[in-house]
Design goal:
single chain; alpha/beta; 8-stranded parallel β-barrel; two-stranded antiparallel sheet; 7 helices; 10 strands; 30% helix; globular; binds the ligand O=C(O)c1ccccc1N[C@@H]1O[C@H](COP(=O)(O)O)[C@@H](O)[C@H]1O; amino-acid biosynthesis
Length: 212
């Protein structure tokens, strides 16, 4: 069993949940963002969440969600964490955390050294931070694009809250990413798919093997 904690994100079918659990998932993520090929309805997410074994953290990923959407999600889906993957400010992160009483993970896009100070603005309000590749202006979603950032930018950097590495990770590159960055947690979505939005059980198993 790997010591690296894995988040399998963008699950949309019961068999995805089963494959992630079998591979030793620490977290599973459900995407609530209509522009994503991984978008699930609140009802589907509730059904999937009910299948998640005890001990695996169930995460709802939203992008600039308002309270009305977050109310509906949290009223219906049994969750353990909220992942904010948009342009939410530190004040909004604090507001969401207080309103829902759930741990919050804030995603921050990284492209160059200049993006690193942004991380510091969230460490006092977020329970975890997630370092993802910064989307390009042409991307119609802020994550799940299968793009990696330059991992050497964060080699030997540490933050006072738990953090997760994301962006373009695959079974083929995840071990090197962990070695270079020292990440103890990784988050994958498109790298474990056979087509956009379709999780591949063989890639999920290969990912776990790559970190074993
Ligand atoms: O997965 C999506 O479609 C998505 C949509 C909007 C925001 C974030 C999204 N995914 C998250 O992005 C990172 C990196 O994904 P990938 O492995 O490069 O495909 C990860 O945290 C996903 O959960």
């Amino acid at each position: 069993m790997t010591s690296t904690r894995i988040k399998f994100c963008g699950l949309s079918r019961p068999e995805d949940v089963a494959a992630a659990a079998k591979a030793g998932a620490a977290y599973v993520g459900f995407v609530f963002f209509p522009k994503s090929p991984r978008n699930v309805s609140i009802e589907t997410a509730a059904e999937l969440a009910a299948e998640v074994p005890v001990g695996i953290c169930k995460v709802a990923l939203t992008v600039n969600a308002d309270n009305e959407l977050l109310d509906r999600i949290t009223d219906t889906v049994p969750l353990d964490m909220l992942q904010l993957h948009g342009k939410e400010t530190p004040e909004r992160v604090a507001e969401v955390k207080a309103r829902y009483g759930l741990p919050v993970m804030k995603a921050v896009g990284i492209a160059t050294e200049d993006d690193l100070p942004t991380l510091e603005t969230y460490v006092s309000v977020a329970d975890q931070i997630l370092l993802d590749a910064k989307p390009s202006p042409d991307d119609d979603r802020p994550g799940g694009n299968g793009v990696a950032f330059d991992w050497t930018l964060i080699a030997n950097r540490r933050w006072p809250v738990p953090w997760m590495l994301a962006g373009g990770l695959t079974p083929d590159n995840v071990a090197e990413a962990v070695r270079l960055t020292g990440a103890r947690q990784v988050d994958l979505s498109s790298g474990i798919e056979s087509a956009p939005g379709v999780k591949d059980p063989a890639k999920i198993a290969a990912l776990a093997k790559a970190l074993a």
